[in-house]
Amino acid sequence: MEDEPLYDVYLQPGESRLVSEPSLIRTILGSCVGVVFWHGRLGLGAMCHPMLPHCPEKSAAPVAHETGRRYVDFTIREMARQFDAYGVPRSEVIIKLFGGADVLPVHHGSKRATVGNLNCKAALRVVEEEGFAVAASRLGGQCGVNLRFNTVTGEVLVRKLC
User: Fold this and answer.
1) Segments of the chain assigned E as strands
2) Which of 62, 68, 83, 115 supports an S-S bond with 31, CB 3.0-4.6 Å?
3) In the predicted model, what is the mean pLDDT of residues 56-76?
4) How far is the first Cα of the chain from the last one, in angstroms, to the nearest whole number?
5) Where are the domains of the chain?
6) Three-class SS of residue 32?
7) Tens digit of pLDDT for each residue in 92-106?
8) Measuring CA to CA, how many Å separate 30 from each of 10, 81, 122?
9) Assigned CATH for 7-160
């Protein structure tokens, strides 16, 4: 099965994808977080690339799906529902978290949280609230990363960009 050709999927910021065919899902992260979902027995793999921590609460209308995927809280919950639709118990889904770096200069005396830091905190909180356990993570730092997720093996290759 590992010798099968892999479909190549590239995620832009604000996108997510769940696949059931052998795929290589790739993206590049800075302050955004990348959340990988994997269920090896069923061959399901997913990744989301949200940019901001929280979906606006004071919106007059419901948030559109395409808009919601920009936000950590919305997109993790959406991916969870997609796995639920396959009948996968959340305890069987492998979760890996990446990104959330402070890639822009930060004033050392500033007490204000960075977007990367807020994204990391939101991802950890929502993953836990949704009943998942984090199997691996590489969050924070000052360098962006290039991710390559093999949905056949569940492996995520991480390459620093600085």
Assistant:
1) 7-10, 16-19, 23-29, 33-39, 44-48, 94-99, 134-139, 145-150, 156-160
2) 115
3) 82
4) 34
5) 7-160
6) coil
7) 999 999 999 998 776
8) 15, 26, 16
9) 3.30.1330.200
